[in-house]
Write a structure and sequence with these properties.
288 residues, alpha+beta, N-terminal domain of MutM-like DNA repair proteins, Helicase, Ruva Protein, domain 3, 2 domains, four-stranded antiparallel beta sheet, 6 helices, 11 strands, globular
């Protein structure tokens, strides 16, 4: 599933290609996504201009000049393909390959002026696209209960401590909770917890101030690195073969079961367990 860095890269790519463009046509090929696409409402977006493109957690917000916002969640397998004015297919992020692109799963096509269009493609159809009045967008059920963004000033020591006081929840489950902190997913939680030398099963009420500060620092560090590695591909989206992000080359624990810990003086090996039905990777020595 695309997490915060992948969605951030999609946002940057869409800003590059469709910001300030005008919607000329919307083609709905399949309305049966996670939520049915409302044909009448979508057609009202024709002739509207893209004012801005934002990200909130794992959601994309495309704001129009008619006081509506297109809210997109990519779900498990959703992807946005950009067709340039040269009729070339371009990736909007690094988490999928163009060679795996199958037109049978094209559900929505938005055509803009300057001969540019975007395609929403989703094999499993767990993603969705909604049209919501812009003044009400942050009050929508998808966004109103989200926790702070990892890079925000609100996500700090005092906030963290206020949310864990007397709670029995374990660290991995806390960080995966979008009401506590928005945008984090399984990959980056595994990485940040490893970087902080904490056990993913530790009870959060046992965390010391230094542990919390380390977590905040490393969550931001791993996300910035992932965005940077994926963002470097944005410059190469004109390559019809697409460019993969490079962050997978820097993973410390995720997907490394049975391999030695990357810390030079640590003799540990990476173990995998299930926490809340998610694979959780950790070092059996430096994350005790």
């Amino acid at each position: 599933m695309p997490e915060l860095p992948e969605v951030e890269v999609v946002k940057k790519s869409l800003q590059k290609y469709i910001l300030n463009l005008t919607i000329e046509n919307i083609e709905i090929r399949n309305k049966f996504l996670r939520y049915n696409i409302n044909y009448k409402i979508f057609k009202k977006m024709i002739k509207s201009k893209i004012l801005s493109i934002n990200r909130r957690s794992k959601y994309l917000l495309i704001n129009l000049d008619n006081d509506y916002t297109i809210l997109i969640h990519l779900g498990m397998t959703g992807k946005i393909i950009i067709i340039s004015s040269q009729n070339t297919k371009n990736k909007s992020s690094f988490y999928y390959d163009l060679k795996d692109f199958n037109h049978d799963h094209d559900h929505l096509i938005i055509k803009f002026n300057k001969n540019i269009k975007i395609i929403y493609n989703d094999i499993r159809k767990f993603g969705f696209i909604k049209i919501i009045k812009t003044p009400k967008i942050l009050l929508s059920p998808h966004l109103k209960n989200l926790g702070p963004e990892p890079f925000s000033k609100e996500f700090n020591l005092d906030y963290f401590k206020s949310k864990i006081k007397k709670r029995k929840i374990i660290l991995k489950d806390l960080l995966m909770n979008q009401k506590f902190l928005s945008g984090l997913g399984n990959i980056y939680v595994n990485e940040a917890v490893f970087m902080s030398k904490l056990n993913p099963r530790i009870k959060v009420k046992k965390l010391l101030n230094k542990n919390i500060l380390s977590l905040i620092k490393n969550i931001r560090k791993v996300l910035r690195k992932a965005i940077k590695q994926g963002g470097s591909s944005v410059k190469n989206f004109n390559n019809t073969k697409g460019q993969k992000g490079k962050f997978q080359e820097f993973l410390c624990v995720y997907g490394r079961e049975g391999k030695f810990c990357i810390r030079s003086k640590c003799p540990g090996k990476i173990k995998v367990i299930r926490i809340s039905n998610r694979s959780t990777f950790y070092c059996n020595i430096c994350q005790k």
